[in-house]
Amino acid sequence: MFDGLKEKLGRFKSDAEESVEEAAEEADAEQADAEADAESAVAESESADVAESEPESDAVAEAETETADAEPAEPSEDESEPDEEDESSSAGLASRAKSFARGRVVIDEDDLEEPLRELELALLSGDVEMSVVDEILEAIRDDLVGEERKFTESTGSIVEDALEDALLSVISVGQFDFLERIAESEKPVVVIFTGVNGVGKTTSIAKLSEYLADHGFSSVLANGDTYRAGANEQIREHARNLDRKLIAHEQGGDPAAVIYDAVEYAEANDVDVVLGDTAGRLHTSDDLMSQLEKIERVVDPDMTVFVDEAVAGQDAVNRAREFDNAAEIDGTILTKADADSQGGAAISVSHVTGKPILFLGTGQGYDDLERFDPEALVADLVED
């Protein structure tokens, strides 16, 4: 899962480590040369002092007297003041070299310029949203540039820590424990699912029903997708396979009425959670969005979950933003995560919506639903 993204992040770590180490070694060499030049200058000065201490001839003394009486000469261009930029550069190199000699390394922004540029292109090509890429790069710069860190075997761990922190800052947004919220909420808890057609919304509902059962919570399924031909048959098959109660009306019925009936069933039968499917819709489809608004008015769901495919990349990110703007969502399920090598949606969705990814669909089975764990995901992405 997300192997392509992991490879790109690994390449950045390697490039950044190599660049920083090369710069530190160059500074060390520059400092060594400077020290050698200084020693040579001291030796020459001592030799000159010895020569001056010898008795002077009358001619030499007379020449020195004449020179002292003469007007001071203007300095030539060759004797002008040293360039401030050169002095600053030399001082910087000297400082870095001293740190290097003490077993520490100072990371300069120039060291990271090329690796960060390559990382930016890699993330954008992997469908990570542009604003997310910018935030990741800025976080890495803030964490690394100008810092003096321990230099043991390599700078790899330094870069890895910065990369991990940067990724967590964009992925771990608004995270909450889904099961904990279910446990603490008044029953029945009503969860509505929305998204476009064909992204695995109905299958995700079935998987979540099984996930809840595995953790001791009962659920009833409600088919609010009353307009799509075959929708009743699809969700009914899942309900039969899982031995769950399904509330459904005839095709063309009122979606809000279906889910309302499911809530009443749950109240009468002490069912913990109502899982309500809705018609696949686009944010630009006024009729379908009106239906979703009616469901919210009539049922007042506790959570609205957006479902899309991880492999949809930037399209999934854009749809998540649009759905959240049209009808506020509480979290996201990304399906087909096992088939996604780029990870663009997984990296970006939380950041652009301000709402967490709750689960990843990782296969065809009812058990193939994983709780989204930002720290575990990032650790897997950045560690060798």
From TrEMBL:
<dbReference type="Pfam" id="PF02881">
    <property type="entry name" value="SRP54_N"/>
</dbReference>
<feature type="region of interest" description="Disordered">
    <location>
        <begin position="1"/>
        <end position="96"/>
    </location>
</feature>
<feature type="compositionally biased region" description="Acidic residues">
    <location>
        <begin position="17"/>
        <end position="38"/>
    </location>
</feature>
<feature type="binding site">
    <location>
        <begin position="335"/>
        <end position="338"/>
    </location>
    <ligand>
        <name>GTP</name>
    </ligand>
</feature>
<dbReference type="InterPro" id="IPR004390">
    <property type="entry name" value="SR_rcpt_FtsY"/>
</dbReference>
<dbReference type="InterPro" id="IPR003593">
    <property type="entry name" value="AAA+_ATPase"/>
</dbReference>
<keyword id="KW-0547">Nucleotide-binding</keyword>
<dbReference type="InterPro" id="IPR027417">
    <property type="entry name" value="P-loop_NTPase"/>
</dbReference>
<dbReference type="GO" id="GO:0005737">
    <property type="term" value="C:cytoplasm"/>
</dbReference>
<dbReference type="InterPro" id="IPR013822">
    <property type="entry name" value="Signal_recog_particl_SRP54_hlx"/>
</dbReference>
<keyword id="KW-0378">Hydrolase</keyword>
<dbReference type="InterPro" id="IPR036225">
    <property type="entry name" value="SRP/SRP_N"/>
</dbReference>
<feature type="binding site">
    <location>
        <begin position="195"/>
        <end position="202"/>
    </location>
    <ligand>
        <name>GTP</name>
    </ligand>
</feature>
<comment type="function">
    <text>Involved in targeting and insertion of nascent membrane proteins into the cytoplasmic membrane. Acts as a receptor for the complex formed by the signal recognition particle (SRP) and the ribosome-nascent chain (RNC).</text>
</comment>
<keyword id="KW-0963">Cytoplasm</keyword>
<comment type="subunit">
    <text>Part of the signal recognition particle protein translocation system, which is composed of SRP and FtsY.</text>
</comment>
<dbReference type="GO" id="GO:0005886">
    <property type="term" value="C:plasma membrane"/>
</dbReference>
<dbReference type="GO" id="GO:0006614">
    <property type="term" value="P:SRP-dependent cotranslational protein targeting to membrane"/>
</dbReference>
<feature type="compositionally biased region" description="Basic and acidic residues">
    <location>
        <begin position="1"/>
        <end position="16"/>
    </location>
</feature>
<dbReference type="GO" id="GO:0005525">
    <property type="term" value="F:GTP binding"/>
</dbReference>
<dbReference type="GO" id="GO:0005047">
    <property type="term" value="F:signal recognition particle binding"/>
</dbReference>
<keyword id="KW-0675">Receptor</keyword>
<comment type="similarity">
    <text>Belongs to the GTP-binding SRP family. FtsY subfamily.</text>
</comment>
<keyword id="KW-1003">Cell membrane</keyword>
<feature type="binding site">
    <location>
        <begin position="277"/>
        <end position="281"/>
    </location>
    <ligand>
        <name>GTP</name>
    </ligand>
</feature>
<feature type="domain" description="SRP54-type proteins GTP-binding">
    <location>
        <begin position="356"/>
        <end position="369"/>
    </location>
</feature>
<feature type="compositionally biased region" description="Acidic residues">
    <location>
        <begin position="46"/>
        <end position="88"/>
    </location>
</feature>
<dbReference type="GO" id="GO:0003924">
    <property type="term" value="F:GTPase activity"/>
</dbReference>
<keyword id="KW-0472">Membrane</keyword>
<protein>
    <recommendedName>
        <fullName>Signal recognition particle receptor FtsY</fullName>
        <ecNumber>3.6.5.4</ecNumber>
    </recommendedName>
</protein>
<dbReference type="InterPro" id="IPR000897">
    <property type="entry name" value="SRP54_GTPase_dom"/>
</dbReference>
<dbReference type="InterPro" id="IPR042101">
    <property type="entry name" value="SRP54_N_sf"/>
</dbReference>
<dbReference type="Pfam" id="PF00448">
    <property type="entry name" value="SRP54"/>
</dbReference>
<keyword id="KW-0342">GTP-binding</keyword>
